[in-house]
# Entry
Amino acid sequence: MLHESIEVENVLTAGQQNQDTDNTTEHNHNSSVSEDESSIETAAPESSSATPPPSVSPAEGGGVRDFPEDLPPWDDPVDMDCIADQMRALISKHCVLTEPEKVAITLWAIASYEIDTFRIFPKLSLISPEKRCGKTTTLETLMALCKNAVISANTSAAVIYRLTSLGKPTLMIDEADTFVKGGDPSLIGIINSGHTKAGAHVLRCEGENYNARAYSTWMPMVLASIGDLPHTIMDRSIVINLRRKTANEHVARIPPDLDSQCVDLRRQVERWRADTNSDILRTELEPPELGNDRARDNWTPLFAIAKNISSKWLEACHVAYKALTVTQEPEIQTQLLQDIRTVFSQRELDRIRTSDLIEELTSDPDSGWTNVAGGWRLTPKVVSNLLAPYKIKPAVMRIDGGTYRGYNRLDFADAFDRYLN
# Structure
């Protein structure tokens, strides 16, 4: 399906022209620029540069809005509970989703108008197991609801950070599996950088004097992909798992003028944002503890939005959060710590030979240590390497009259306390 995407050719051209300069500057020029010759400028929409920044305009025949969208707020105060219901109904009309997923997407779309109120803002990752699961349809529906939406089926690192020279977009990336997954690490890094407001910047050197310039990467972002994206992106996302509709599920097709039909909705959300911004800024509400600290960070903006809409939406947010939050599987190093603590406790030992520790860890065929991911075996060297980040090392010790290499329980106390409690 050829969706109505925002034409980013002008920005793309500017980004491509500067990308080689960016890379060359970073590797070859930084050391040659003195403090007198360089300065740091912050890229902003109100740039006073002699050369105006490139613009992003609708693709020819696309019929979608300009970016940035100059949309005046609604004239009168609005009932946001009713507006949020309308937004959820629109999502239900066009998208095959669970009720918790509809709630999460609705709250995320509203939060896109309030991003500057928050310290952390999550990505929204639309993940489908295979094609024809409604990725593009969901993106188009979201585009009609979000603030300053820009949609593209391909982009580069330079385009992402240069977009903020024009305004703050809600960037929607379709086909992310074709160029983000397994793609340029710098692109993944820039996508990740926009998770926390304080760190959402990249520095580039520009011009004949290689002046340093700061670009913001702080923007709402949606990524649609067949299959999971890199784990660092997924960890910074509220993940929506799309499914292909069954013969008994019916949704309406997206009309060509959906974006225009939703202008009033966007204006009403703008009015609500203006009226409640200070209230949201003062909202102190953390999601419940579900064993996933990153998920709590990701959902905090949605809880703040829901609380300021109504008690009904706050309750719906609680239900959605519990339904969509996955308890994180521990990293392999953390799993090893957990299992070593179990060995020490069950055998009531203060120290243990490395060979005995490995025997204990691999004695249970269901433990995972008999065939570790990647096919490698648990050996003394592997155990030592996995424990090295915790500053835990094997020591020579006397046990039962012999001299062996092994581990003291006391050496694990700090790691147990920091990473397991």
